[in-house]
Amino acid sequence: MIIQDQLQEALARAKKAKEHPKLTGVGIVLVQNQILMIEAMLALCATIDPAKLKDVAQPVEEEVDQKPYPEKVKDNNLAYEMEPVISSNVESIGFKDGTMRVQFRNKSLYHYYNVPVETFDGVKKSQSVGSALNRLVIPQYKGEQVFK
Q1: Per residue in 95-123, pLDDT tens?
Q2: Residue 91 — φ and ψ, nearest 5°?
Q3: Fewer CB within 10 A of the end CB, N or C, for the chain?
Q4: Tens digit of pLDDT for each residue in 23-60?
Q5: Which one, of 53, 52, 59, 49, lies nearest residue 3 by Cα?
Q6: Which has the higher per-residue pLDDT, 78 or 22?
Q7: Within a 10 A sphere around the Cβ of 38, how many other Cβ atoms?
Q8: Does the pLDDT at position 8 exceed 50?
Q9: Tens digits of per-residue pLDDT, 77-100?
Q10: Is the torsion defined by CA of 117, 120, 124, 125 positive or negative?
Q11: 82 with 33: CB under 8 angstroms?
Q12: Could you tell me which residues are beta bridge partners of residue 147?
């Protein structure tokens, strides 16, 4: 099966990444969790009888339009240094002259205005960036979606 081959390749890459000398702390935990998930998916695949499957979708070989968000973005003559964050919903955040920029994992981009730097720092240092954003920024400050 194609998916089992892809999972085996992903497992090999994850195990190799786990051995990287610069990987520490949260990175180790994330890679270990990735290995556990891949192993669980492989175990699940082993229980599936291909003969009993009907009309299994074939892999699509088309290019997906990925629009990576650059580390430094110029907008209205302001340069934002975007900082990646560990979050299931938020990809990165940036701050310049009272404007907080939030890049979500679905690639939508929002600006929140007149945000104090202390609030930005609080969100950035929070254990849950998404929760802090929902509690400290979204209900308190005017925001607008600048990219869908």
Answers
A1: 999 999 999 999 899 999 999 999 999 99
A2: -90, -50
A3: C
A4: 777 778 888 888 888 888 888 877 777 666 555 555 55
A5: 59
A6: 22
A7: 20
A8: yes
A9: 457 788 898 888 899 999 999 999
A10: positive
A11: no
A12: 109
Residue 115 neighbours by CB distance under 10 Å: 21
Q: How many residues does the chain have?
A: 148
Closest Cα partner for 100 from 77, 119, 73? 119
Q: What per-residue confidence (pLDDT) applies to 69? A: 46
Question: CA-CA-CA-CA torsion for 2, 4, 6, 10, nearest 10 degrees?
Answer: 180
Q: How many CB atoms are closer than 10 A to CB 123? A: 26
Tokens for 35? 């290995």
Question: Could you identify the residue written with the tokens 């229980």?
Answer: 47
Q: How far apart are CA 91 and CA 104, in angstroms?
A: 5
